[in-house]
Structure formats: structure tokens, C-alpha cells
Design a protein that fits this description.
With 476 residues, this protein is of the alpha+beta class. β8 and β9 form a beta hairpin. The strands form four sheets. A four-stranded antiparallel beta sheet has the order 2-5-7-10, with helices on one face. The protein has a two-stranded parallel sheet with strand order 1-6. The two termini are 59 Å apart. The protein is elongated, with a radius of gyration of 45 Å. The chain has ten helices and ten strands.
Length: 476
């Protein structure tokens, strides 16, 4: 039994280890990275919360049009001299009292302030939704750029490793010649030094690759490292067909940034209408339903009559004779709580008109402030248009320069490949010195590195331009 438990624990640990390694070693495509970022990114979640707040504000604006209905109820005990709420008489006794009322207040007209507030909050809601879309577009852009930066650094690392492999092959050949005391001994020392340089370049490339991966992980809000899968990533390199003016025109139509700024302008204009409503009179309908209870309230029931002597008298034959009177007798009984609440019901119905005559220029100043808000919104839109237009021009120029540089470097790499092939053969056969060999090798290595950088610089700028056009670039 004990041995079975041990085997079970070992199997469980083994399965957990394998599963953990499988999860950590999983490769993610660009589409998967973008999906994870849209789901996990904290800044995007904050933007969505702001949009939810704008939606709630709109719901409240619509609800403000409805009449308000409120109820009140109280019960208490009073000792000493007080006014009986049932009879309005002064009494000096312990009194239990209770009141209940229901009030209704409905705005009939207030200069269309409520309706314009609904329209303003609706525009603010649309602006918030566009700002969420703007955050999504920006996040997709940053994830894509970070993803491509990982690819770029990975390719540079691969180039550095290939250079080290070529150096090691040459080192092995020179080491044999050195041990056989053939050729120039300095060539072997130079190759050893070149190997150290290549190893250092690999360490630098690994550091750059790790930093780019960490940047991508932060955007995805993940806890562990990830590896990327480029199986579905199409990276054809063709000349970009759109001019900077074409990109800017598409941006004006499709970019969520401009739509959000436009909605903010419209909302600010509605704010002027809301502020102007303070000059108009407000007409409201009100009504009340009231009732009350008092423990001092009583009912009296006639139980009969009796003849009683009064304080008055009459004189008969010089004799004072008392005066008797016939008085009705009553019995008292407390009125129940329920009966008083039913019997004491009273209603109020009325119309209220509030006319603004003077309020310290508050209405006038509020209108002026809202007009300033509109001007600020217009300036913000114009500033955004100018900034994005200049950014598009700069990115487009850099994109064209990167494409031309890529074409030039492509020819350069081919030329240096042939030069390196010839110099390597000559050096191995002793027909050339190490300086010519290492110069051609370094020229080829530098050209290949510059070519890889130019390629990714071009892709990055194309992606930025597509972002401004409001297009999807999950596949390049």
C-alpha cells in the first residue's frame, strides 16, 4: 500500500513537471499575443472602466427625466408639554406619535436642460467607446512592434551564432597549422581573438533578445516567459503603395482617435445648451399624500344622562335654591393606529414655477465656460491632426529610406559573400594573409546585420502606417 502511494506521488510530480514545461515552452503566434494583450492589459481595462462610467452617467441622465417619488415614515414618543398632532391642542402627557407621507415631484419644463443633458452624456459615451477602441488599436500596435522586435533580435542572435560557427571552423584549421608549426603563428592568435569577439557579440544579442521578450511579456501582462511562433506570419517585402497623404486621409476616416475627439467636441457643444437652460423658468408638478397618528386621540360614545347640581342658584322667597341640569354622559376609547392612518389621510396637488431673476451671473458665466470648453476641444482636435500628420510624414519618409537601404544592403551582402568566399579560399591555401580574410569576414557580418535591421525597420514603419490607416495588421 505504501509503495503504491509513493508511485502515485512520483507519477503526479512527473505529470506536473511535464505539464509545466509544456505550458512554459508553448509558442505563441502574433494573433495569440494580440488576443492575450486585449484580454489582460491593465491600461486597456482602465479605459474600459471609464467607458462603463460614461454608460452609467447616460443611464442616470435618462432617469432624471422621470418623476421622483419618495416616502417618509417616523414614529416616536414625547414626554411633557407638547402639541397633539391629532387635535393641535396643547397637552402635558406622554404622547406616542407617528407620521407618514408620500411625495411626487415631476419636472414639466426646464429649458430642455434634461433632454440636452441626455444628448451630451450620449456623446460622451460614444467618445469613451472610441477612446477604448483607440487604446485597443494602440495596444495592438505596441504588441506587434514588440513582437517584431523579438523576431529581429532573434535573427541577429542567429547571425551571431553562425559567425561563431564559421570562426570555430577556421580556428580548428588554424590550430592544426599552429600545432604543425606551419604558416604564420599570429594568424592563430588573431582567430582566437576573433572567437572572443564573436562570443561577446552573442552575449549582447542574447541580452537584447531577452529584453525584447520581457517588454512583450509586460504588454501581455503574463507571469512567465514565452516563445514566439512565426509559422503563420507572412513577411513579404514589397514597396509600400500608399503616399503619406493617402495614409493621413485614411486616418481621418478610420482612426478612433479622431472619432473620439469629434464626439468630445459635439458633447461640449451640447454643454452650452445645458448651461443656457439656467436662463429659462422651471415648471414642476408636485403632489403629496399625508397621514398621522397620536396616542392621545380618543372617540367618545354617549352612555346616558343624569341630573347634576350646578353652581348656579335662584332666590325664591329669600331662599337660595340650587339649579339642577341634565348632562349627557360619555365613555372614551382610544382610536387604533390603523383607523387613524386611514381617517387622517390628506392630499396635496400643485404646480410650481421657478423664474430665475438674478443668480450672481452664475448662468452667464457657466455658458461662457462651456464655450471655452468647446474651443479647447477644437484646439485639441487640431493639435491631434497636426501631430499625427507630421508623424505620418516622418514615418513614411523613414519607411522609404529603410526600403532603399534594404535594397542597397541586399546587393552589398551578395558582393561581400563572394568576396568572403574568395578570401577564405585564398587564406586557407596560404595565398592571402589573415588581414584580408578577417576584413572580408567582418564586412559580410556587418552587411548581414545591417540588412536584418533594415528589413525590420521597414516592417515596423509599415505597421505604424497601417495603424494610422486604421487597418488590421495581425498578418504582415
Amino acid at each position: 500500500m505504501f509503495s503504491k502511494q509513493i508511485l502515485f506521488i512520483i507519477a503526479l510530480v512527473f505529470y506536473g513537471t511535464v505539464y509545466s514545461q509544456t505550458v512554459q515552452n508553448r509558442s505563441y503566434t502574433l494573433d495569440e499575443c494580440i488576443s492575450m494583450a486585449l484580454e489582460n492589459n491593465l491600461n486597456l481595462k482602465s479605459s474600459e472602466l471609464l467607458a462603463n462610467s460614461a454608460n452609467i452617467n447616460l443611464k442616470q441622465s435618462k432617469a432624471n427625466i422621470l418623476p421622483s417619488l419618495n416616502g417618509n415614515y417616523n414614529i416616536g414618543v414625547n414626554n411633557g408639554r407638547s402639541i397633539d398632532p391629532y387635535t393641535n391642542r396643547f397637552i402635558n402627557q406622554k404622547l406616542t406619535f407617528s407620521n407618514a407621507n408620500l411625495s411626487l415631484d415631476a419636472t414639466i419644463f426646464n429649458g430642455f436642460r434634461l433632454l440636452n443633458s441626455v444628448k451630451q452624456d450620449k456623446l460622451n459615451k460614444l467618445a469613451s467607446e472610441m477612446e477604448v477602441e483607440e487604446s485597443k488599436q494602440d495596444l495592438v500596435l505596441r504588441v506587434t512592434l514588440a513582437y517584431l522586435q523579438v523576431l529581429n533580435n532573434r535573427d541577429l542572435l542567429e547571425l551571431a551564432k553562425n559567425r561563431l560557427i564559421a570562426t570555430n571552423e577556421q580556428l580548428e584549421r588554424q590550430e592544426n597549422l599552429y600545432n604543425e608549426e606551419v604558416g604564420n603563428p599570429a594568424d592563430y592568435a588573431d582567430i582566437v581573438g576573433q572567437k572572443s569577439i564573436d562570443e561577446t557579440n552573442i552575449l549582447s544579442s542574447e541580452s537584447a533578445l531577452n529584453n525584447s521578450k520581457l517588454n512583450l511579456v509586460r504588454l501581455l501582462n503574463l507571469q512567465n516567459e514565452l516563445s514566439i511562433n512565426t509559422q503563420d506570419l507572412i513577411m513579404g517585402l514589397e514597396k509600400y503603395p500608399y503616399s503619406s497623404e493617402d495614409v493621413y486621409n485614411d486616418a481621418l476616416e478610420n482612426l478612433a482617435t479622431f472619432k473620439a475627439r469629434t464626439f468630445r467636441i459635439d458633447a461640449a457643444k451640447k454643454g452650452i445648451s445645458v448651461a443656457k437652460a439656467q436662463f429659462a423658468p422651471e415648471i414642476s408638478l408636485f403632489g403629496q399624500l399625508n397621514t398621522n397618528y397620536s396616542s392621545a386621540a380618543e372617540t367618545f360614545t354617549e352612555t346616558g344622562s343624569s341630573v347634576v347640581e350646578t353652581d348656579d342658584f335662584v332666590v325664591v322667597n329669600n331662599n337660595n335654591l340650587p339649579v339642577f341640569s341634565n348632562r349627557t354622559q360619555f365613555s372614551s376609547q382610544n382610536i387604533s393606529y390603523t383607523d387613524q392612518f386611514e381617517n387622517n389621510v390628506n392630499t396635496v396637488l400643485g404646480l410650481s414655477v421657478s423664474i430665475p431673476l438674478f443668480n450672481g451671473f452664475r448662468a452667464k458665466n457657466n455658458v461662457a465656460l462651456q464655450k471655452i470648453q468647446v474651443e479647447e476641444s477644437l484646439i485639441e482636435l487640431e493639435r491631434t491632426q497636426l501631430e499625427i500628420k507630421n508623424a505620418i510624414k516622418q514615418v513614411h519618409f523613414d519607411m522609404e529610406a529603410a526600403f532603399l537601404r534594404y535594397e542597397s544592403l541586399l546587393k552589398q551582402v551578395e558582393a561581400f559573400k563572394e568576396s568572403y568566399r574568395i578570401n577564405e579560399i585564398r587564406f586557407n591555401n596560404g595565398a592571402s594573409n589573415f588581414l584580408a580574410y578577417i576584413t572580408s569576414k567582418n564586412n559580410l557580418d556587418s552587411a548581414q546585420t545591417n540588412l536584418a535591421n533594415a528589413k525590420y525597420e521597414y516592417f515596423l514603419r509599415v505597421i505604424v502606417l497601417e495603424y494610422y490607416r486604421g487597418k488590421s495588421f495581425a498578418s504582415i
